[in-house]
Amino acid sequence: MFENLSSKLNTAIRTLKGQGRITDVNVAATVKEIRKALMDADVNYKVAKEITDKIKEEALGQKILIAVEPGQMLVKIVHDELTGLMGGEKKDINLKGDPAVVLIAGLQGSGKTTFSGKLAQHIKKGGRNVLLVACDIYRPAAIDQLKVLGEQVGVEVYAEPENKNAVSIAQNGIEYARKMGKKVVIVDTAGRLAVDEAMMNEIAAVKEAIKPTEILFVVDSMTGQDAVNTAKTFNDRLNFDGVVLTKLDGDARGGAALSIRHVVEKPIKFISTGEKMEALDQFYPDRMASRILGMGDVLSLVEKAQQAFDEEEAERINKKIRQNQFSFDDFYSQLQQIKKMGNIKDLMGMIPGMGQAVKDVDISNDSFKPIEAIIQSMTPAERKKPDIIDPSRKKRIATGSGTSIQQVNNLMKQFEDMRKMMRMMNKVQDGKMKMPTLP
Ligand code: GDP
């Protein structure tokens, strides 16, 4: 996400890094590059100009701070401006009310239904009882899609396939939620391929009838500048409360994220980075700015890990590590937990300095497949006691998993290194050994 913008901004800033001080001339050149990077990423021209003018003013105003390296200082200035541009503070979704009603609006294909499922899961994890309501009366497939997602995340879906009146379905759905004691209702509506009057009238009528606590506008970030225009049209009509940016996992240039907030003056509340139900993040402007500048986003990484890792499992593994019994079964189960965290490349991008380093590397969840296949081809005894894996067993495992002996060897070596490390950590914790220090 934002890889191009990120790399161009870094190049622009690097030109200042080698220079001892900030001058009118080098700032002008750098700022011009920053503006170009923003516009290449689809940031609206006016927005790009406004923000770079501010950056320039700030940078020149700080000429006297000679103790700080100009490049570093500029990173800070750009970071603060980007954060401000994206809204400053993180804004939460409003779930007051009994039940709270969240209306989901946006064009067809923007990712509304997928997001509705994700939001349902997110709210359910927060401990509230959720109901999904399917109000797309034009595409029968949309109802089925929502039902599949509802089942996946364990949330009930209210639908009336024969009813062709979106307003009455929404009202009935909320009535049903009240009766069943649901605390939050998410209403997924119909979209069209482009903005049209009938669609706007329908969603406005639904809004009028159900008086939602929160209206979220879902927009596909791959649509670039169009995303900004669509957001404006929907906002003029619905006065929505927040924006959901989807498909940020693709090669979206990301400029929409930077411009929408500025143009419609409504906060981005969520970003969606994949088709899996877990690929949803709350939007933190400052963390996003850090990511764009390659400063990493360790906080989001930690949060994701906390969500994906189940505490009991963590405790179980910890115990095994303490008893030097970590096995290939445990390794496999940890891999599954890591995979639940979502797109690996995006995760790596959250580690400071890694974003740029991995941008051209092909890392996907599929990279784990050979490892998984190798472990699956081992017998339970081998997984538990890898020491018994002799050359003939290795050959069998390689054949069974469709990999090479070399790959099996590599995995076994990595696993042994991991176990060695764990044994060492245990000794350090028990006070039998000092942490080795670097020479
Ligand atoms: P709707 O018509 O607005 O309800 O859109 P859908 O939820 O049906 O999404 C349209 C397509 O985009 C589907 O194929 C989804 O799987 C896909 N999609 C939705 N969100 C994301 C996302 O964040 N990343 C990616 N890569 N695909 C997404």
Automatic annotation (TrEMBL):
GTP binds at residues 106-113, 188-192, 246-249. Residues 267-280 form the SRP54-type proteins GTP-binding domain. GO terms for biological process: SRP-dependent cotranslational protein targeting to membrane. It catalyses: GTP + H2O = GDP + phosphate + H(+). GO terms for cellular component: signal recognition particle. Transmembrane segments: none annotated. GO terms for molecular function: 7S RNA binding; GTP binding; GTPase activity. Its EC number is 3.6.5.4. It is found in: Cytoplasm. Keywords: Cytoplasm, GTP-binding, Hydrolase, Nucleotide-binding, Ribonucleoprotein, RNA-binding, Signal recognition particle. Belongs to the GTP-binding SRP family. SRP54 subfamily. Involved in targeting and insertion of nascent membrane proteins into the cytoplasmic membrane. Binds to the hydrophobic signal sequence of the ribosome-nascent chain (RNC) as it emerges from the ribosomes. The SRP-RNC complex is then targeted to the cytoplasmic membrane where it interacts with the SRP receptor FtsY. Composed of three domains: the N-terminal N domain, which is responsible for interactions with the ribosome, the central G domain, which binds GTP, and the C-terminal M domain, which binds the RNA and the signal sequence of the RNC. Part of the signal recognition particle protein translocation system, which is composed of SRP and FtsY. This is Signal recognition particle protein. It comes from Pseudarcicella hirudinis. The gene is ffh.
